[in-house]
Amino acid sequence: MKTKISKDKKISIVTLGCSKNQVDSEVLAGQLNGQGYKVKFDDTEPDVVIVNTCGFIDLAKQESIDTIVQYADAKTQGQIDNLYVTGCLSQRYKDDLEQEIPEVDAYFGTLDLPFLLEELGADYKKELLGERQLLTGPNHYAYLKISEGCNRTCAFCAIPLMRGKHVSKTIDALVEEAQNLAKQGVKEIMLIAQELTYYGLDIYKERALSKLLYALNEVEGIEWIRLHYAYPSKFPLEIIEAMVKCDKVCNYLDIPLQHASDPVLDRMRRQITNAETIELINKIREIQPEIAIRTTMLVGFPGETEEDVDKLIEFIEQMRFDRLGVFEYSHEENTPGYELEDNVPAETKRLRAQRVMQAQEKISFELNQEKIGKTFKTLFDRKEGEYFIGRTEFDSPEVDNEVLVSANEYIRIGDFADILVNDATEFDLMGTIATK
After folding, report:
1. DSSP result, 347-380
2. What architecture is the 141-369 domain classified under in CATH?
3. What is the pLDDT of residues 47-84, one digit of tens each?
4. CA within 20 to 30 Å of 426's CA: 152, 248, 367, 400, which one?
């Protein structure tokens, strides 16, 4: 095969959007590195740029477009030689992008990795699928994408349009990938998917996430396994039972609930009611009382009233989630929700999101105050100013609480340490290394 991109050229992969996109970029980099190409992430002086885009909501789409235009201008000015675009935005709007930004050499969708590699002059090598060049910096944690796509039909979500139907990876393949990550020094893996709880139904004809957890728990070198993006409807409680039995599985669950008002949940097509959600959360906590539950809420969905928001806040105050984020509804074309009138003004959405976070801040502060005087195993991610910054098993990178320890202490990035908490704010714990 004639090489279209010289292996002497520096290739930069620019990644936008979620952790699933990050994994895709790491897999792409692994394929290219394994075939002798020079690949970096966000290189300052590249010859070739690949932009891995996000198309989830309006703000993400605009960021992706702005980034493409930035590099298109750089190509026009002769600062880079080639520009390629992949990911969710180009999966969803390829025809429009080709018309609007013709400076891009080629556009590719979310499942077009073999074609992108071919365009670059490389081969799609199955033996390199488990090899990844990590984007997470110190490389002591990494994301493990256990499936692609989603079979749900949530009214607000465009992900099935961009990622297709649910396709699970095999347990054997995921164990091998986790082993490869451990060889790179990864100590914590975070399981991600569009929906974790559906895992295995397509290939094993049963929900198999718990079986995967038991298998991953045996991987040497991995110390923490974390669960992200579990769907509440028909939630398989054997996952929590596996959490109890597997010493490496963190007592942490990310389960986006989106709302608590039944009329809104119904219009969102969430297939669960407020009462069923409360029953589920109580059962999870009954099986594992130590669990930290993270959730996200969506405000401003068409038809949402102030009464609905009151119901949501009442629910949050009742459930007292350890971690909570909130999004403002974005009216996405070709989704079921797009057929409804986007009748909640932007300012109202913003104020409702603010109300939700104010309620959560109070809860988070109270829960953190209860941690003062206790000791927690903490994994340290970075040094920033006068502090080493880490996380407990109850916190995921970038989105959750952090533990701050004076830089005067002796701590190595990527190491665990037992930290005695001596102070706390709404979203941070302060402490010192515990003496034995």
Report:
1. HHHHHHHHHHHHHHHHHHHHHHHTTTT-EEEEEE
2. Alpha-Beta Horseshoe (3.80)
3. 999 999 987 677 888 889 999 999 999 999 999 999 99
4. 248
